[in-house]
Amino acid sequence: MMKLVLLLALIPVVLLQNADNVDHQSWDRVAFRPCAGVRPVPRELRLKDCPSMPCLLPRGTEAKMAMDFTSVQEATSLHTTVTATALGVTAPYELPADRAVACNWLVQSRCPTSTGEDLTYHLSMPITAIYPLVSVTIEIDVVDQTQQSHGCFVIDARVVPS
């Protein structure tokens, strides 16, 4: 029983280390569009293997991005919301639960965050083999416990065969 408790206690530590060990500086810096409304934009966005828009997202892989942003207020928690629009239909994209908690994927930082703190957030988003081969607009927003946006952007992508 004690081994199980110890193992469960170590899982978040291993997950947190994943973001810290990602070499995202060599990824492609990409242009993005701001989200609708008055939501802050990232200082910089980097995507792995995406030299130009639309990003090509091969089925069965993961889309990887790193977003540099400045915390607009103190945040005890950060959550990622993803919205996808394809073929005229807009729907939420449900991230796996462990990936939706943005605090777990801050690089060299943790929640709580302070107002004005410069942060880097890393996200790996699964592109499953069942996704249709379509063009898609993706909106990613990092929000805190009060639903205040800390960074939001829109990119264009296309799901392609692996």
From TrEMBL:
Domain MD-2-related lipid-recognition: 32-157
Cell location: Secreted
Coiled-coil region: none
Keyword set, alphabetical order: Secreted, Signal
Signal peptide positions (record): 1-16
CDD domains listed in its UniProt record: Npc2_like (cd00916)
Keyword presence, Signal: yes
Pfam families: E1_DerP2_DerF2
Record-given protein name: MD-2-related lipid-recognition domain-containing protein
Native source organism of the sequence: Aedes albopictus (Asian tiger mosquito)
